[in-house]
User: What shape does this take?
Amino acid sequence: MKRALLSLILVVGGSISAFAQFFSAGNLAVTHVGDGTTALNGFGNNVAIDEYNTAGALQQSFPLAQTGPTPFSMTGNATAEGALSLSEDGRSLTFAGYQSARLSSGSLAGSTAAAVPRTIAEISVFGVITKPVVSSTAFSANSLRSAVTDGANNYWALGVGTGVTYMGNNASAATIETAQTTLRVMNIVNGDLYFSAAGSIFKVTGKPQSGTATPVAVINNVGASPSTYDFAFNAGLTLAYVADDRTTANGGGIQRWSWNGSTWNLDYTLAAGGGLGARGLAVDFSGANPVVYATTTEAANNRLIKIVDTGAGSAETDLALSGTVRAFRGLEFTPIPEPSTFVFAGIGAAAMLILRRRK
Assistant: This one.
């Protein structure tokens, strides 16, 4: 009796890899810390990247291993860790953490990088997680919070105490910006590095790999003790949204900023989280009214929310809860493949069906 065994193999970039569950274009990716049992703490918590559709339905989850040769953790009670950034070429997501299982004592952020290496993790459109950068020197005894890539094996990271650092692909870390050293979220916008500090969003022209760059404040947040996290600009750099984790009563929420040709001006602030504020942010600028997605600021069991911006006072819709003893952190749209690379189930890459027969 003969049986046919059907195998699916993806041919990506000239190499063959086992089939992985790919992201769907237009969905949302969220950094998720905590396993639902262990308290969010400074010793280290489990991390996963969750995929939701824009109606708030969980599609799948990509957990990072806390065991094995390259375990990965984040500080669960550090609200500034876990930022998620889309690569410049749109084909992967990057985030930063620690190459460590949960510590029995002490803090991940306070550990030396020699004892607990700092690492940049990357997840491709195919759901494949790699750790292209591991450093035993960078961000030692400090928190590593955010990382970006241009999609060409170049990586930049930021956190506390160091500034913006070029980390290459396992290359020696090179600090390229030292004027601002307590930083939160970084993105690549129109070919330039942008990053947030507590009170402002800064720009470094280009994507330098060495030397010392001078950051320029692009948007200066307003009010008492501003607390800027993630941000998003439209393609023309005429409209921006900024997440601030202060309460609405204190100026926080999701701020809408407009460029008048010479300066950025605050238009209004959208209440987020029922007035609690926001940290993670992703904005769909494609329609007449931008659609804003954000993560709220509860310590645990926080929310993924949606606001269609029709003006000041636009209503919020709660899409999903992170779960008990868990928290959402960073937020981005899912990566998409290069259109010419793949055509399978309506989504682009070269695929090959191999039919093997055996007796």
